[in-house]
Design goal:
The complex is a heterodimer of chains A (79) and B (619).
Chain A (H helix, E strand, L loop, with lengths): L10 E7 L7 H8 L7 E10 L2 E7 L2 E5 L1 H4 L2 E3 L4
Antiparallel strand pairs in A: 1-2, 1-5, 2-3, 3-4
Chain B lengths: L1 H6 L2 E7 L5 H9 L3 E5 L6 E8 L5 E6 L11 H10 L11 E7 L3 H12 L5 E6 L1 H6 L3 E2 L1 H8 L3 E3 L9 H8 L15 H12 E2 L8 H9 L4 H19 L2 H21 L4 H18 L2 H17 L2 H14 L7 H6 L4 H7 L6 H10 L9 H11 L4 E2 L3 E2 H26 L10 E3 L7 H35 L16 H13 L6 H7 L8 H13 L5 H12 L2 H13 L4 H11 L3 H27 L6
Parallel strand pairs in B: 1-4, 1-5, 5-6, 6-8
Antiparallel strand pairs in B: 2-3, 3-4, 7-9, 10-11
Classes of the chains: A alpha+beta (79), B alpha/beta (619).
Pfam family, one (chain A): FeoA
Keywords (chain A): Iron
Protein name (chain A): Ferrous iron transport protein A
């Protein structure tokens, strides 16, 4: 499952960040913002139009990510 | 030798993530001893301040732009990276890096601190917002953190008085050498996790964060949009209604001053120059200071409170439909105060094409310099009555003018982006913690704006007013002339000369005259009209009497046409200059000026024709 498919309120653990292209700046920045394997993430809100962007919470920090950005975050399957 | 070293100020730089409370700390440490300028060659704002430590040591403190990483993705972050590493041209390497972390956000901020630490330069870590962390139930073992990091760690609450005293004490004896590399070959994220596990405990579980509760409303698809719309609407109502009493007070003061000068001086050229040129010219614009400050206050409060990025979240999709991202919202909203800082704020947009489009449409956002013109025309031509018992018709018209500008900006952005390839525009925007805006920070921000505004009045506006007064007073009318004196002056000739260009959109020759100095600064158009009509009419005092003169001499259609003109017209040299600097060439300046003039002319023409057809023409 990917971060943009997570239902609001539920928590999941990040498995890895997927690079879409060579030198994927978005993926690099996501890692720098703390989206690294093992971190728990949660969706706090969807944008009003087409559920885009998504607001996610990681640690005590909240970020607004577009769906294409959030889809780079691959989540661990709930065991 | 030692004494000399002691006397030289210590060069320190503040670094940290965005939203770590760095600017509040900077304000706390340096107070009003700040100098705001630009870094050489780029338009990234450079803020430097001075402070003295308890033992009397002078420190020059540089406030570097906030950065998430030293792997820069924007011009802002590139400046921080280069200054920290000591390779920014014209900027000596700081002798001490003060890395500011928010204690509430250590996971993110420690990572950056570790990155800065890898530079091996002398550094201090400041744990800021300690009070907020305590409220979240976090307990931080500061001695342990200092031991593990191997650099001095002090705590601070930047928004409280004396909240940075530990840091000041430490600056008396700053570390002179950089930290040694951390042992082992650990990944930076693993180090962060280990530090958090060792040094941070959460003894008391806090039920729910304020942010979670507020965000449920603020980011809600329906309520969130309603809140946003209400905030914007109240903002424009406030600009109009709250500002009225202080504006009346300033107006009375200026009028009184002008009358006093008129009585003291004998009739003649000097009296006319001072009263009709200088005082009337500067006075008509100074009157708008309260209004401009209220607008800036709103924008500052929205910025400081952490609301703006949430508005960007809500509007991202709408911006995306015009080919922009929510990131463009912040520079565009700042452009409502003034397009110059707005265009400069576009540097936080990573995508070059997005940035260019945002720069091109920023002048369409109704800047505060247009307010005097709008206010004057609305007061003169729109009846002052309440609508639905709640709103004021003046406020509604003003709101409508702003909406018209926003809609046309979206359309222009859409047209501009249509040619380009569909590339990905990153949003990746942090939604910071909510903060009660700090009074000192608001005060400092407003003070800087007021100084900028008043120095414009003092320089450009007074100069232009005097020049215009001279042009409109000479040559004197021939003896036996029947028309008003101004018709025979140079201004009259110039006005009549360019009238054919603007007659099709309903402008009078007096408006044509006012448009020329309005190029220097939009608000000058108001004082120019005051000067033209003051010397053209009888013995009147410009500021107070302009409204009735205009409503008597212009038709409603002319007024509406001028309003439409001002929604679009690119009449501001500073904006064009900053576009040139930001885009590095004249091409975009030409493009901007041309398309805005075209739009302005077309909009005025349509407005004038429609108003004529509806019976708003000259009676």
């Amino acid at each position: 499952m990917r971060l943009n498919e997570l239902s609001p309120g539920s928590e999941a653990i990040i498995d890895h960040i997927e690079d879409r292209e060579a030198d994927d700046v978005v993926a690099v920045r996501l890692r720098e913002l703390g989206f690294v394997p093992g971190e728990p993430v949660r969706i706090i809100a969807f944008g009003p139009f087409g559920a885009d962007p998504v607001a996610v919470k990681i640690g005590f920090t909240r970020f607004a990510l577009r769906r294409v950005e959030a889809s780079r975050v691959v989540l661990r399957d709930a065991a | 030798m030692d004494a000399m070293v002691e006397n030289l100020p210590l060069r320190a730089a503040l670094v940290g993530n965005p939203n770590c409370g760095k600017t509040a700390l900077f304000n706390q440490l340096t107070g009003s001893r700040q100098k705001v300028a630009n870094y050489a060659g780029v338009t990234v704002e450079r803020k430097e301040g001075r402070l003295t430590t308890p033992s009397g040591r002078a420190v020059r403190l540089l406030d570097l732009p906030g950065a998430y990483s030293l792997t820069a993705t924007s011009p802002d972050e590139a400046v921080t990276r280069d200054v920290c590493a000591g390779r920014y041209r014209g900027e000596p390497a700081p002798e001490l890096l003060i890395c500011v972390l928010s204690a509430t956000n250590l996971r993110l901020h420690l990572r950056f601190a570790l990155e800065v630490r890898q530079l091996g330069r002398p550094m201090i870590v400041v744990l800021n917002m300690l009070d907020a962390a305590r409220k979240q139930g976090l307990a931080i073992d500061v001695p342990r953190l200092q031991q593990e990091l191997g650099v001095p760690v002090v705590t601070a609450v930047a928004i409280r008085k004396n909240g940075a005293s530990d840091l000041l004490d430490l600056l008396d004896h700053p570390p002179l050498v950089g930290p040694a590399p951390l042992p082992g070959n650990e990944d930076i994220h693993a180090t962060v996790r280990r530090l958090l596990a060792d040094c941070v405990t959460r003894p008391s579980a806090v039920a729910e964060e304020v942010e979670d509760r507020l965000d449920r409303w603020v980011l809600h698809p329906v309520w969130g949009l309603l809140i946003l719309f209400a905030l914007m609407f109240v903002m424009f109502q406030a600009v109009f209604s709250w500002a009225q009493p202080p504006m009346d007070a300033v107006d009375a003061l200026v009028t009184g001053f002008g009358e006093t000068v008129r009585h003291i001086l004998p009739d003649g050229v000097l009296q006319s120059l001072l009263v009709d040129g200088v005082i009337a010219g500067a006075g008509t614009v100074i009157v708008y200071l309260p209004q401009i400050l209220i607008l800036f206050l709103w924008i500052l409060v929205l910025e400081e409170s952490g609301y703006l990025p949430r508005a960007a979240f809500l509007l991202d999709r709408i911006m995306a439909s015009a080919g922009l991202s929510g990131r463009s919202f912040i520079p565009l909203l700042s452009s409502f105060a003034c397009a110059v800082p707005g265009i400069m704020a576009t540097r936080t947009i990573q995508n070059p094409r997005d940035r260019l489009t945002t720069i091109l449409i920023a002048p369409l956002m109704t800047c505060s310099a247009r307010l005097p013109v709008y206010t004057l025309l609305i007061a003169a031509f729109i009846p002052d009555r309440s609508v639905g018992g709640l709103f004021n018709l003046h406020g509604l018209v003003l709101f409508g003018l702003y909406i018209a500008a926003i809609l046309s900006a979206l359309i222009v952005a859409w047209v501009l982006k249509r040619g380009g390839k569909a590339t990905e525009h990153p949003l990746l925007l942090e939604l910071p913690a909510y903060r009660l805006p700090n009074l000192r920070d608001l005060g400092l921000g407003l003070w800087q704006r007021a100084v900028i505004f008043l120095s414009r009045v003092g320089t450009i506006i007074v100069t232009v007013s005097v020049l215009l007064w001279a042009l409109s007073s000479f040559p004197a009318p021939p003896t036996g002339a029947t028309a008003p004196a101004i018709d025979y002056s140079l201004v009259g000739m110039i006005g009549h000369w360019i009238l054919p260009v603007f007659a099709p959109i309903g402008f009078t020759w007096q408006i044509c005259v006012a448009l020329i100095p309005g190029l220097a600064a939009r608000e000058v158009a108001v004082s120019a009209l005051a000067t033209v009509y003051a010397t053209g009419g009888s013995d009147t005092d410009a500021a107070a009497q302009l409204t009735p003169i205009l409503s008597a001499q212009w038709s409603l259609a002319t007024a509406l046409s001028l309003l439409a003109w001002y929604v679009f017209a690119p009449q501001c040299f500073s904006t064009l200059a900053v576009i040139r600097r930001e885009t590095g060439g004249w091409k975009m300046v030409t493009v901007t000026a041309t398309y805005l003039f075209g739009l302005a002319y077309a909009a005025s023409f349509v407005t004038w024709r429609v108003a004529l057809a509806l019976g708003g023409g000259p009676s």
